[in-house]
Write a structure and sequence with these properties.
Length: about 550
């Protein structure tokens, strides 16, 4: 049921798409955040790497460099190692960062430890290797000490040199007047005691929470060094959330479009076919792929086109055939009336009246055949299926045919057990009557009638004769309306070419088929009609089951 419904597949596809897009969005956020976090770590350490590198470069000899590195390690409370560059594997991207006087940060997600590699301006053969397992306020305040130590070498030019190194910091670094800062008296007092302070600010904008480090400048009571505001890392900033949402919706839209394209294409094909039908072109057929609703629609359209085309062709053939068939008895009636008008012999006039009566009866029979065929051809007639004893109907037709004194042997093959089939008695009787009548007209001496159930549980009736049979090339054509294999013989036998076409349509509406081949016992033609024998029983069982279910539900209530 699931695979046969295009709408269920679309709904299921939408659910799967939502899940896939959600997973895709989550993974994309994780990948982007990993990269953003790496860039954030590097941006925070770039300024520190430049200042420490400059501090080491100012030392005149190796011993003083080592002492400065040791003091810096104690101040930062982080281990700093002076290592040989050949012992550190550097990628091309990391080499470019070191060449640009920036830091290389290697983050170990499992241990939560960052390993920082810092290049030295005047010593390309060595690196500083820093292991940072925890960043606290002490490291942030120590950075201000390194900046002030850098500015000591440029008295009176502090602001100019801060502007020069600003590119190495991802946040502003400046010298400000204490009075211009939003500080309370306690914070100002701490600055006067040469203590650095950290300010936290919650911002409702996209920047989020920020921190600022304010450090006093030695020898100055009015100016301070301000680092920041430094934005804290935001795992889901507004831009990222908006971008991921829009991208997810776009991917979801593409998925929905992909789900709807097959149905849209099939609907376009149906619309095109209907427009062709409107112009009178009945030759176009739709491809039937699968077994969903659209395939059912295409199959229904094809069946409708076949039926309409068949009705139009049958109508044209019927008009041609009727006009041809009616001319002969009408001409005979007109001739008989004219003869009666010129003849005074009473006996002759009675003969003409009898002949006219036969022609009128022939007209009635022809009209009845035409009406029956048209009724069966136009659409499914009102068929009331019921359980019928098949042998009883076969025997009835045999008795009725023998009463016509055809001087032909009609034999009914006996059934070992009673066979009850589902059919409408009137139409089943018509089928057997037409088949037997056709066999009587063309047999030499004998007609054999039989019926029962085949190996597949299908009901069947079989009529055989010992006549000349039907050539294999003509076996399909004989079921067409007004088809005659031997026109003169058919006319002599009183046929109109509608009997077998009526049998074919009744078999179709019974849900079965009619076939003709050569009789293995009599050598003539053998007609076999098969149809489902148990449809009526299953239908009754289903109704009975539904009725019992309703009754049990009423009792439970």
């Amino acid at each position: 049921m699931f695979k046969h419904s295009i709408f269920l597949r679309i709904y299921a596809g939408l659910v799967i798409l939502v899940v896939l897009v959600a997973v895709f969005g989550y993974l994309l956020v994780q990948i982007i955040n990993y990269q953003r976090a790496q860039e954030y770590r590097e941006s925070l350490t770039d300024g520190m790497a430049y200042i420490i590198s400059e501090g080491v470069a100012r030392q005149p000899n190796l011993q003083q460099k080592m002492d400065w590195i040791s003091d810096a390690s104690d101040l930062l409370e982080l281990p700093i190692h002076y290592v040989d560059a050949s012992k550190v594997d550097i990628t091309r991207a990391e080499a470019r960062r070191i060449a640009d006087r920036k830091a290389v940060v290697r983050w170990d997600a499992e241990s939560g430890i960052a390993y920082i590699v810092v290049g030295l301006r005047d010593d390309p053969d060595h690196y500083l290797y820093i292991k940072a397992d925890n960043i606290t306020e002490r490291q942030m305040k120590a950075l201000a000490v390194f900046i002030l130590d850098y500015l000591v070498y440029y008295p009176g030019q502090e602001k100019e040199y801060l502007a020069r190194i600003q590119d190495y910091f991802s946040y502003p670094v400046s010298i400000e007047n204490v009075q211009s800062l939003p500080l309370d008296s306690e914070q100002i007092g701490r600055l006067r005691l040469d203590h650095s302070i950290i300010l936290y600010r919650d911002n409702a904008s996209i920047r989020g929470t920020t921190i600022s480090i304010i450090s006093p400048i030695p020898g100055s009571t009015s100016q301070v060094l301000v680092m920041g505001p430094v934005p804290l890392f935001n795992w889901m900033p507004f831009q990222l959330a908006t971008g991921i949402t829009l991208l997810s919706l776009f991917v979801l839209s593409l998925g929905v479009y992909g789900l709807l394209v097959p149905m849209q294409r099939k609907l376009r094909e149906v619309s095109y076919a209907l427009n062709k039908m409107k112009t009178g072109n009945m030759s176009l057929r739709l491809p039937v792929d699968g077994s969903d609703e659209m395939s059912t629609l295409a199959s229904s359209y094809n069946n409708m086109s076949d039926h309409i085309q068949r009705l139009i062709e049958a109508q044209r053939e019927l008009m041609r055939a009727v006009s041809h068939e009616l001319r002969t008895p009408v001409a005979r009636i007109r001739f008989g009336v004219e003869m009666m008008a010129d003849e005074d012999d009473y006996e002759y006039r009675l003969q003409q009246v009898e002949q006219i009566d036969k022609d009128i009866e022939a007209l009635n029979t022809l009209i009845d055949e035409i009406m029956t065929y048209a009724k069966l051809e136009q659409g499914m007639p009102s068929i009331e299926f019921e359980q019928i004893d098949l042998y009883d109907v076969l025997n009835q037709v045999m008795v009725e045919t023998q009463a016509l004194k055809t001087h032909k042997i009609i034999e009914l093959h006996p059934m070992p057990v009673a066979v009850v089939v589902e059919a409408e008695r009137r139409y089943l009787h018509r089928v057997i009557q037409n088949l037997v009548g056709n066999a009587i007209r063309y047999c030499d001496n004998k007609v054999l009638i039989s019926g029962g159930l085949d190996q597949d549980g299908q009901a069947y009736v079989c009529v055989e004769d010992d006549g000349p049979g039907i050539p294999e090339v003509d076996r399909a054509r004989i079921f067409e309306a007004f088809a005659r294999l031997d026109d003169s013989r058919t006319r002599a036998s009183g046929g109109y070419g509608l009997g077998l076409s009526i049998v074919s349509r009744i078999a179709y509406w019974f849900g079965g088929s009619i076939q003709v081949d050569q009789s293995p016992t009599l050598g003539g033609a053998r007609f076999i009609m098969t149809w489902p024998a148990q449809r009526y029983v299953k239908k009754n069982k289903r109704k009975l089951l539904e009725k019992k279910t309703e009754e049990s539900s009423d009792h439970s209530v």
